[in-house]
Amino acid sequence: MKIAFIGLGNMGTPMATNLVNAGHQVVVFDLVESAIQTLKTAGAQSASSAAEAARGAEVIVSMLPAGAHVKGLYLGQENQPGLLDALDGKPLIIDASTIAPEDARLVAETARERGLSYLDAPVSGGVGGAKAGTLTFIVGGDEAGFEQAKPVLEAMGKNVFHAGESGAGQVAKICNNMLLSILMSGTAEALALGVKNGLDPAVLSEIMKQSSGGNWALNVYNPWPGVMENAPASNDYQGGFLVDLMTKDLGLAWQMALESKAAVPMGSQARNLYVQHAAQGNGRLDFSSIQRFYRAGEE
Amino acid sequence: MKIAFIGLGNMGTPMATNLVNAGHQVVVFDLVESAIQTLKTAGAQSASSAAEAARGAEVIVSMLPAGAHVKGLYLGQENQPGLLDALDGKPLIIDASTIAPEDARLVAETARERGLSYLDAPVSGGVGGAKAGTLTFIVGGDEAGFEQAKPVLEAMGKNVFHAGESGAGQVAKICNNMLLSILMSGTAEALALGVKNGLDPAVLSEIMKQSSGGNWALNVYNPWPGVMENAPASNDYQGGFLVDLMTKDLGLAWQMALESKAAVPMGSQARNLYVQHAAQGNGRLDFSSIQRFYRAGEE
Amino acid sequence: MKIAFIGLGNMGTPMATNLVNAGHQVVVFDLVESAIQTLKTAGAQSASSAAEAARGAEVIVSMLPAGAHVKGLYLGQENQPGLLDALDGKPLIIDASTIAPEDARLVAETARERGLSYLDAPVSGGVGGAKAGTLTFIVGGDEAGFEQAKPVLEAMGKNVFHAGESGAGQVAKICNNMLLSILMSGTAEALALGVKNGLDPAVLSEIMKQSSGGNWALNVYNPWPGVMENAPASNDYQGGFLVDLMTKDLGLAWQMALESKAAVPMGSQARNLYVQHAAQGNGRLDFSSIQRFYRAGEE
Amino acid sequence: MKIAFIGLGNMGTPMATNLVNAGHQVVVFDLVESAIQTLKTAGAQSASSAAEAARGAEVIVSMLPAGAHVKGLYLGQENQPGLLDALDGKPLIIDASTIAPEDARLVAETARERGLSYLDAPVSGGVGGAKAGTLTFIVGGDEAGFEQAKPVLEAMGKNVFHAGESGAGQVAKICNNMLLSILMSGTAEALALGVKNGLDPAVLSEIMKQSSGGNWALNVYNPWPGVMENAPASNDYQGGFLVDLMTKDLGLAWQMALESKAAVPMGSQARNLYVQHAAQGNGRLDFSSIQRFYRAGEE
Known about the structure:
By secondary structure, chain A is α/β, with parallel strands linked by helices.
């Protein structure tokens, strides 16, 4: 299949590589030249603009940092028209960026007016999942588009969910990550409280994991150093999912709560903890480093 | 084995019954006569006081509502001496009540001074687990006592954990339940936010369960009515683990945080939500009914 | 002075009336015809559009519900050009609406490009202050514009503050109202805690007012019914500053916190309390009714 | 009048000195010999035990760190009988310590059984107020005792409030200090948010002080360095009311909330902020230093 891939950052680069490896004909574009070179080495073709990459494509995949970039790409910005107005065919468009649902809905609606099908398909699984091809895609858009996108997404990921109509992929992703921030800070808080009261963190982790405290953080991502050998916590909180990215996703959760007038006391608490943690210089650490916030003052 | 069982409430009655059914010789005592009758029917012997029940026992098991009752029983109170001073042998003492760790440590220390072994062994699993004999016991005390207690506890439960020294069972139980309150309110919050933004609660539950939002509440105790057939949420939040009991456990978490000068922002948030929810008349509902707090104002 | 006044809602109507009463020549416009009639009766002239009202004006004052309306008015929207492009002179523009600082800065910048001076001048004091002419104006913009605006603002208010450059009026207003929500909910919480522990709310109010707990809510707006005769609390929480409006302002505070990556744990807590309180059907009550949230379950 | 004064810490020393200066015959006791010497120099007599100090006294004043000390003094502890059982007359007892209301009520009740009148009379105003004789006393106990105590208290303070029956002084003091912690952290949060968005902290302080954000912190204790010359903030947060003491009082507020099943979301938030701030090494700074928590990451 001929696929245009736009946005070759830490996530986009391995995702596009997996599409190449799956046998697709991939044409890539990014503003950073070196990123393009990496993909050419991997077997992709390059283009000098998003519009050029999209020429003749059956599918367009984009992976960009924020809503402003996605809107700029598809709807246009000061110095250039939007890609939606520069297409020569009717490719299926899949945006894998994590952005506000209302931004996703705006692009989807504009695409629909031009007879195009646009899916929001944010991912979870991080850089590790992107490299291993084990990402989870959470997709918003119509059923037909979803079925068409599925084989493409399965070349980059393991699980592909259909969350609902346009924007629903973003909503589900943001809800999930808000809950994740609550699980992680709650788990770190429970471990710190137990240790301050004499427990061994590994013993307490094991007990809670097998009891009603069981959750993703305890199962595969324990935040206490040394409890789980392969977790970022045991590697000085390097790698993984950055505090800065969690903070960004919690910002999207707040926006969503504002627009829908939802009370989010647990998510707000987690957001403020993560922002405070980032302000204290930890933005580039893995998000399980919130454990350190709870251990301030230890020798 | 000859076992004295003191405290025949909603939990103690089925627990003592399971000991009878396992072939032990059980002598029971409770202040409520009808509770004693139930156990006699089940095959236990009765006593007219805790001291009488304990006479000649190899093991004493107690299951009482709060720390004041446990201290009253073992250390004595105004009108009666403590059981620790009324024993004719050296039975192993197992207290399965959920109380403050410092209360547990005080009784354990006093027992130790009299050459007695005392374990704190709070349970999780609720009335359902007590009846089915599938409770989880989280035990604090020395290794020898733990090994001696294990077969007795296994007649009443499925999992038996050794959390550490005296008091550690209470610490671990309280940490777990604080985390549980965070998982449940966080899950309810994420579901409410998603639904307000157009998602189907069952679809969102499935996505988060299989993603990094996965946790005990989503796996076996979904708080949204109708998503999980056998959960209390699908039965008008009847039965299960009462809001009032979760509130009590969160009070113990606060006490522990006060004594150890621990910051517990997530647990505090959950505690205040549950207290508010109880104040609005929901204390006798299952604790997953916190979902309703997030749905106020829906038609 | 010839003044155009755009936006005749609950606040705009008495504000424009006070300008008429101060002897200014006021030309008004609103989408609601009946509002225009009220002002004509009071002595104003009417116009059939904002542009017509602004013709020949030395000063334009606008008082609109939200940022979208302010941007629509001055920058234009789908079906009409912005007022900034339809002016025949160089009137001073004063927008008294409470909107996001970035929206205010955008309009100010666009005005500046056209050689116009635009001030953001949100008010506090509510409908009562608007009628009595005792509003507080908090102004953002350059010094020259501020000095020029002062006499006009003093016809509608008692205090006029210069907070800083464009947008600073909005920032200061939003910070103040976030703090106000914290004072009010904190005061209500302290009173409820004291009363639950046996104190008389009037006695406790007096003690705290004269101690380090002293604050605006205790001084002039006591939230406990009966303590302060003229406060909304003593009139079933009717009138005053609505929960819905406080909720709106707390939303602006969240937006500001998101954009500046600020942790706002106290303001977030207050925002979630107010949103919850509104969801329970109290949006149209005075914001001191948060006291009721703390009294749930009382007979 | 003959007055026994027990407890010569940072607060007790200047308080007893003021009683001496007012012409009373003061007999002091403390476990620290050097503290006694200071008072002897000031003109007091010394005693070698609390019981000896109390011999023949018309009034007993105590000023101790915590409830355990107060109960130990009056009700006795392991190695000594309580003072209530060692008195030769019927002195009025005034305890100025800040302790849990239930502890105060227990001592008051025991005193009453012995025909003695006991008042709880916690103070606000800090070491500065103690030295200047401008403390505020918040008194719990019966009317007759209150009237009898008033002239003695007025020798040490400026304001004397009668909050209600036994324990009410503690309840009111704790409510006030919980509210104070909310005012201070809320004010620091609003200032930090304003400054991050371009405002001058002095200008914003002035605006909020004169608007509905006005509160004790803005009026006399501004937390931003340099805004108020004589505030601890302008002296590196030295002196004043220590973070560790505010944390202790917030712990008493939590205890009270637990016992009365009160939701305290704002006070809990403040408590966790202060505990976190203390854990990061700031326990010995003035409590307005919470401003630094909000400024983490600034150059």
